[in-house]
Specification:
By secondary structure, the protein is an alpha+beta fold. It is about 15% helix and about 35% strand. The strands form ten sheets. A five-stranded mixed β-sheet has the order 17-22-23-20-21. Strands 24-25-26-27-28 form a five-stranded antiparallel β-sheet, with no helix packed on it. The radius of gyration is 47 Å and the shape is elongated.
Length: about 550
């Protein structure tokens, strides 16, 4: 009986708790709201409701500016109040617990042909243009190593509006009205390609790296490539293609007029002569103002015997170290001036530095190139000469009697000849991912405008670049063989400079009489010098050149 009493008590308590919870729920749902307001914005009404109840509202700021209806309600449920406020305003609501979510309903699009007859509607529908058929193409863009290219542009040729971009995996999806379009695929740093699409799915496009970089890369000390934006000093650069537009035996002459702040004076010594390169900045009166030349990170000796010396005994000049380089082997030339060059190479580059980067092998198919060039040279401007008066007998000076014809027997222009420059070059390029090879053969054969002034140069270049240890080790082997021969270059004095004698040769004499610089003396049985003018104007400099006139 005691157990039955306890069960009755437990059942009574459970019934009481259920009734209590139901009363709470009914009381919460049937919460009454009293609100009287004129037509105003939603935000103002919400503030008033929040002050009288525990409800919170969630809505867009733009929705808070919309006008709601005027109401006068006393002790009615919250949903009834909201229905009256939002009637015909397009505002809907949803109550979850104590939070009321508000949003603006989009107006339903009504058929503009609702009031028309079915026949009229069908006729107008036929008059409307049919929607074009779109074809979907998808594929992937990679480089030659199979790495996906991100951000590649894929567009239909002839249409600038139809385009797509490749994603992180190099994949793209493109829609076009053309069933078999020609797609143009391009990416920064790679050569663009064009391809007609026959299959719409899983197309693979492979782009090759472009030799022209988006950002200029300069060669600095030890042959290290640096981005132009990473340098804090001025660097000027020229690529090999621009350098070889006009062939020259000395690459220093190719810099003339193509780089700011650099003055290049071509040598008057003839073909193959040394050039004088002077950069902007402080100069020395006692030391050479020539820049330092660096080839593939290695400074080279550019000394020559082309120094200007006073007097008539100036030695015959020769070529310089930089003229030994084959211009067709050059990939780029960078010029550093001022303190930046001195900081990299010390006092040897106090007057600047010329950084030369030679060509290397490339990854891909074996490539053989051959180039040839022919140039003709002639004097551009000659001094004005008087030909009205000749010389007296056995005298050098042309202060004699007046020529009856008004024209002397000698014209300095006839002394010069037409110069010819033949340049030939053949190169072979091959390589894999780990090993690249470059081989070139070049020859330059030049005949100057001065008789008997000739220059020949033969170049053999071999360069091998090997990469190992997952690109952590890079070995470069370079071999250059040069054979050069220069003949009868002009000096600044008189003994190795025929121009003084050419210009001052007597106008009344016949130059053909001394073309043969030696004549045979039968009495003495030896060859004698064919020169009857003594040592008046140190004219002997002409002797060594008359044999080829």
């Amino acid at each position: 009986m005691v157990i039955d009493g306890r069960l009755k008590v437990l059942l009574s308590l459970r019934t009481f708790m259920c009734a209590f919870l139901l009363m709470i729920g009914v009381h919460r749902v049937s919460a009454q709201v009293s609100l009287t307001t004129n037509q105003t914005d939603l935000k103002t009404v919400i503030q008033r409701i929040k002050s009288k109840t525990k409800y919170r509202f969630f809505y867009d700021d733009a929705l808070g500016k919309q006008k709601v209806n005027a109401v006068s309600i006393s002790n009615l449920p919250i949903d009834f109040v909201l229905n009256r406020l939002f009637e015909n305003t397009g505002i809907s609501y949803k109550i979850i617990d104590n939070i009321i979510y508000l949003k603006k309903e989009k107006p339903a699009i009504k058929n503009r042909y609702t009031k028309s007859t079915e026949a009229t509607y069908q006729q107008r529908k036929r008059e409307e243009p049919a929607a074009p058929t779109l074809y979907t193409f998808n594929g992937q863009v990679q480089d030659v190593e199979g790495i996906p290219l991100i951000g590649a542009t894929i567009m239909v040729k002839g249409s600038s509006k139809v385009r797509a971009l490749s994603d992180l995996e190099g994949k793209f999806v493109l829609k076009s009205e053309i069933p078999n379009p020609i797609l143009v695929i391009s990416c920064i740093g790679f050569d663009a390609i064009e391809k007609r699409i026959e299959n719409r799915n899983n197309q693979l496009f492979v782009l090759k790296e472009s030799p022209y970089e988006l950002e200029a890369v300069f060669v600095t000390a030890l042959g290290i490539n640096r981005s132009g934006t990473a340098l804090n000093y001025n660097v000027k650069q020229m690529d090999g293609e621009e350098l070889n537009k006009v062939k020259t035996t000395n690459i220093a002459n190719a810099l003339a007029g193509r780089m700011a702040g650099i003055s290049v004076n071509e040598s008057a010594a003839g073909m193959g002569g040394a050039a004088r390169v002077v950069m902007r900045g402080p100069k020395s009166l006692a030391q050479s103002n020539q820049p330092l030349y660096v080839v593939d990170g290695i400074p080279i000796n550019n000394r020559s015997n082309d120094d200007v010396k006073g007097g008539i005994y100036s030695i015959q000049p020769g070529a310089e170290g930089i003229s030994d380089i084959n211009p067709d082997d050059i990939e780029s030339v960078s010029v550093l001036s001022g303190a930046a060059a001195a900081a990299l190479y010390g006092s040897a580059a106090a007057q600047g530095a010329v950084m030369i980067k030679t060509k290397s092998g490339r990854v891909g198919k074996t490539l053989v190139e051959f180039s040839t060039s022919t140039q003709f040279l002639s004097p551009f401007v000659l001094p004005d000469f008087q030909n009205e008066y000749g010389n007296r007998a056995n005298e050098m000076k042309s202060w004699g009697t007046k020529n009856t014809s008004g024209i002397g027997g000698y014209t300095p222009k006839d002394f010069f000849r037409t110069g010819v420059n033949f340049t030939n070059n053949a190169s072979l390029t091959a390589g894999t991912e780990r090993n690249q090879v470059y081989l070139s053969l070049g020859s330059s054969t030049v005949s100057g405008i001065i008789p008997n002034n000739d220059f020949q140069r033969y170049n053999l270049t071999f360069k091998n670049v090997f990469t190992a240890l997952e690109d952590k080790l890079r070995l470069t082997f370079s071999f250059k063989f040069v054979r050069e021969n220069d003949k009868n270059m002009l000096a600044q004095g008189q003994y190795f400079n025929p121009l003084t004698s050419v210009y001052l040769f007597p106008r009344g004499e016949n130059f053909n009489a001394i073309k043969e610089f030696e004549t045979y003396d039968a009495v003495r049985n030896i060859n004698l010098q064919n020169w009857n003018y003594g040592d008046d104007l140190k004219m002997q400099t002409l002797i060594g050149l008359r044999t080829v006139c």
